Amino acid sequence: xxxxxxxIVSALVTVAxxxxxxxxxxxxxxxKKEQTLGERVQQLxxxxxxxxxx
Length: 54
What we know:
By secondary structure, the chain is an all-alpha fold. The protein is 89% helix and 0% strand.
């Protein structure tokens, strides 16, 4: 392979790695938001159960 081909392949591999890392990061952020929302719902449910009803 010529130097030009090596450079192009290296650039494509770098872009692919960046895309994979970005997708993993986005998935982790979405999962954390789901967990945070679930925890908040649980807290509100617990508070409403503890509150006396008239």
